[in-house]
Write a structure and sequence with these properties.
The chain is α/β, with parallel strands linked by helices and 318 residues long. The chain has one domain: P-loop containing nucleotide triphosphate hydrolases (Rossmann fold). It has helices at 16-29, 46-49, 59-63, 99-110, 127-133, 147-167, 174-187, 194-205, 207-219, 232-249, 263-270, 275-278, 283-297, 310-316, and strands spanning 3-8, 34-39, 75-76, 82-85, 116-121, 140-143, 223-229, 254-260. Bound molecules: adenosine-5'-triphosphate and magnesium ion.
Length: 318
Amino acid sequence: MSFVIPIGSGKGGVGKTIFTANLGIMLARSGKKTVLIDLDLGGSNLHTCLGIKNRNSGISSLINKQENSIEDLIFETDIDNLFLIPGDTLNPGTGNLPFFTKKKIIKQINQIDADFVLLDLGAGSTYNTVDFFLLSPYGIIFTSPETTSVLNAYSFIKTAVFRMLFRSFKPKSPEREIIYNFINIKLEGSGRSFAGDLINELTAHSYMSGQAAAEKIKEFHPWVIVNRVENRESIELGLKLQDITRKNIGIDLEFLGPLPEDREVQMSIFNRSPVVITNPASVYSKQLLVIANKLVSGEILPQPELYLDDEDLLKIED
Ligand SMILES: Nc1ncnc2c1ncn2[C@@H]1O[C@H](COP(=O)(O)OP(=O)(O)OP(=O)(O)O)[C@@H](O)[C@H]1O
Ligand SMILES: [Mg+2]
């Protein structure tokens, strides 16, 4: 089983794609078979951050039904152990994802034979993006040190946790009804914490359901990375995010590390060559190596079981 790491953010332009490209290179260089997937449908540019011209079909051909298997879309890059499934630059306009295609993509990503599979997601918490984020309990939430970006990261986590809980109960179940009502009627503006209150409501319905929801929350271990850090205050914003997420949602966000603001990153984009290749001594590259080492030394953990069906979308997406 591969270690799937989705990389999401509430706000756009915070550095996810550059991170995915450079982290992928580092993991591959440490001998780990790594597959990068550009899932920023409608805005894909992972190949550019890798310095690759996109001549291969990507995820779009699965969406347009020109291809049937994700394995056939994986192509080998010039870097040993590094593979890429590009996005949709060849076929723009695939931002709209039919439900069954999403389900197929999710299933096939989980079956990819590799050590690491990194998913570069589009910004924001639409349900398609959140469903890709929930492919693994170990997604990375990316934020810049700006307050708006941190607040959007918080909303992203909140949406992801609701969606995770909703999907962990069967379609048409009373538990889904309780969660749905909690989100739409009770939570907004009420200042109530759902870690405790939602679980209490589920427990009042059935002790087992309350336990199951509490268990799901415990299994969910998103990481956070604060990028473009320049000073101590930037890191403190990250700590605040950890704090409110723990208090309000009951989730322990693990701080995977800060990444520094580094002009070399911008230069690397200008030169169309990843910074860890052109400038391994840069502060960004060095800090990224610390993160890559953390991942390489970690254990592969089981994926949570989530239900994914039509009914979710009909109900929760309006
Ligand atoms: N650590 C850094 N230091 C300096 N500049 C950075 C750093 N990280 C990212 N950037 C800048 O931020 C820009 C956006 O990065 P990137 O495209 O990776 O963001 P993104 O989160 O993938 O955006 P989107 O949400 O649009 O997909 C880059 O072009 C680069 O100029
Ligand atoms: Mg991006």
